[in-house]
């Protein structure tokens, strides 16, 4: 059994997950870093030898999740914090100009992957009890609709509601449970969404100042280090350059015949 606290991170190969892995490993935590890209996990191990347990895991594959959790070494459990960060957006088309296979992948990753990971890791979090945390990454897209957001936004709305219900179902365990809902943040989000257009990805951040992965890592660090009796139910975080979108009002001429 680990003498150091342990954080279990999904989607640790880039963005928020990688930054959070580095933040916690550099502060004495042990990190279970999961993701599909083995080479990136190995790079984290090389950076923090002894502090990172790499686990190749696919959120769309329940057997992969169960196997990764079952194979955890004793010194990487119990789990003080589960950071359900892994997720993705695919496609930019508005309904009906969409690809239902992409919708299915988003649902399998953002919804079912979250459910299966939570169920698999929850017993290890309950073993810590008071002071432990589960942090689920949602998005402002779960509250603010935009053209092309469709199923991605719906999956993030699910994260918010699932988090609230999980908190209710685990009442009395001492586990803190939070929905972390970022706005405009720098990551590989657009590159993934567009099928690998990294030029479009960089253009998203060229003339503004987005949240950085390190900002999210700092937020996660703050959440897990609050007093054990304090629970932040949800936290919506945006960069200063972004404000909540007002509803769009169309003029009569904007409507089709």
From TrEMBL:
Stretches that traverse the bilayer: none
Alphabetized GO MF terms: oxidoreductase activity, acting on the CH-OH group of donors, NAD or NADP as acceptor
Annotated PROSITE patterns: ADH_SHORT (PS00061)
Family named by the database record: Belongs to the short-chain dehydrogenases/reductases (SDR) family.
Keywords recorded for this protein, A-Z: Oxidoreductase
Organism: Pelagibacterium lentulum
InterPro entries to which the protein is assigned, alphabetical: NAD(P)-bd_dom_sf (IPR036291), Sc_DH/Rdtase_CS (IPR020904), SDR_fam (IPR002347)
Gene3D superfamilies noted in UniProt: NAD(P)-binding Rossmann-like Domain
Designated name of the protein: NAD(P)-dependent oxidoreductase
A Pfam family this chain is assigned to: adh_short
SUPFAM superfamilies to which the protein is assigned, alphabetical: NAD(P)-binding Rossmann-fold domains
